[in-house]
Amino acid sequence: AYNCLIHFYKRGDKMSSRALRKLQGAGTPLGDEDSGEDLVEPVKQRANAFNAFSLLNDESCSESEVKEDDDVSSARNASPSLQVEKKKKKRKKKIGKKVAARSSEDNLDPADEVEASVRWVEDNLGQPLVLRKENKEEKVNPLKIVLAIENKHLNPENEMKRIFGSRVVASETTRHKKGRGRPHHHRTSLLVTAKPSWPSAARSGLSMRPVDSSQGGAWYTLDHSPTYQAVQMRFLSAVESLNPDQIVALLNTHPMHIDSMLQLSDICKMGDDSAMAAELVERTLYALESAFHPCFSLASGNCHLDYKRQENRALYIALFRHLHFVGARACYRTALEICKVLLTLDPVDPLAIVLLVDFYALRSRSYQWMIDLYTAWNPTRNLSQLPNFSYSTALSTFHLSQESSGPTSSALLVSADSLLQEALLSFPSVLLPLLDKCSIEPDPAVMGCTYFLDSRSDPAALAVLCTLYTARTFHCWKEPEILPWLERNVMAVLGRISSGDPRVAESVQERSTRYQGLPRNIHRHVMMSEHREALSHLPPELKEVASLAWDPLPPLNSINTYVAPTRQPTAIDDPSALRMFFRSLLPNFNPADPLALPEAEAEGGAEGGAGGGADLRNSVNSLLDAMRDLLGNLQLPEVPNEAEDEASEGEEERDPREWD
Predict the structure, then answer these.
(1) Which of 123, 392, 510, 657 is 20 to 30 A off residue 473, Cα-Cα?
(2) Strands 218-224 and 303-305, how do they pair?
(3) What does the pLDDT look like over 135-155, one tens digit per residue?
């Protein structure tokens, strides 16, 4: 066997190391010293290969360990049996928990030098400054939490999917896509879903930039390019002409002009084309959103637009109209979210959304949110002095009591009763119109109570608020479970009135001293809401003001970029109704023709009493001229002779199918 081992060793690399170890273990007891020397060389090669890998496994390799390795290798050269023993000892050394004690060179840790350097710097330069962050809890405004906006509720299509299902909405969208022209590439919008037929808003001329403001938050403003400004001046001239065809022609050449789409939407709404009116408003919002600054976000609640700037009002008006169109489609949750957007865009609330938000909170069944808003906002905005919040908060509390059970339900019901009685005492003029809208005959005790009947003593401002709330929210009071609750609390209020409750006298005093006038934003809200009952209570000076669909009732401190051109009087503006009537009978009459002023009036006319006589003579002369033109243009038809008619009738062939 030993001779075989020598034979295999001489073959060199043809023998595998594993087979060599097996043979070495079997032949070691039979060998002598000479043959053992021959085995030193292959074992030494194996030991060197093993040491190379052991360097990677050890944590560190010091000079002392290198010396030990040299001693071990020299010992292995002496005897193969010692080689095996040394190998086992080294293996045990690796398995042990701790490595042998290092030399004095290994005991020098670099971390000690770093610590010594740090101590020297601290002794010479002092301790470093440590910025301690105080753990103070920031007080979060509860109103900001209540008015937090959720992106998923801004698009009405998402709510339509929840109501009718995704399959129905998808099929409707596919049906609208068929039969259209070449589709355009549209960017993703947060407020609306762009339709393929809409033009691209990439080069509309609109942009947005940040502006400095002393108020909190980030403030931005919309800008118009020079080309857009030229189109805007053409639009103002078209509006002054009172000709909608000019607006349509302008929109055909510039399909993403904001004010033209708003004006044409109002015209379509007056023509009972609500679908086209809503689509124009959605297209307006898409064009405006495409121009937003990258840092501007409607859902952040920290980005604002100043309503006083003329360019920014288009976004407010478009959102307000979109709000009504979305509500007409029963997407009340989306409408409520748009109310939050309008409330956060400008803290001044230029469109008086505070008169509208309670209605959509009730319709979307966000009763707890309504109560949270009232609790957070009432200390600063005095919402209890508004009839819509007084009644809607009581109604929301009653709905919550119906949804809960146990002691919580009883406590909420008691709170709802108290709130409703307070609302009836503070705003008694709401009750009878509300019952009339709900087609409910009042109790004889209510009809005999002067406290509810005598609403003529209320100020005109309070009458506007009560009428607006009744006309808008009476649907919410028609539910069957609400009417018994309302009747019970009305009877309780009648008892308090008859017993001389001091709160009754206080309420009368408060109504007589408050509500002496309404701010301009509430007047703007009433004009844009188009409730006829509320419009009748507006001040006379506002009834005569021309309301523009693209900018209704601008603020008095408006920052105007554009000035509307002076409108030239036309034939329809003739102060003489009789003269205009005779001129309108002419076949060549055109209402858009400029008004032809008399020569004396054009030159300035005479002064004093002679001027009045000259105006009268000029009016008579103009009337006579109009009558001469009328008579001169009249052409009487030729009357045929009766004999010729009889002859011609006799010459006509008789129809054989006629009877004699």
Answers:
(1) 510
(2) parallel
(3) 445 567 888 899 999 888 998
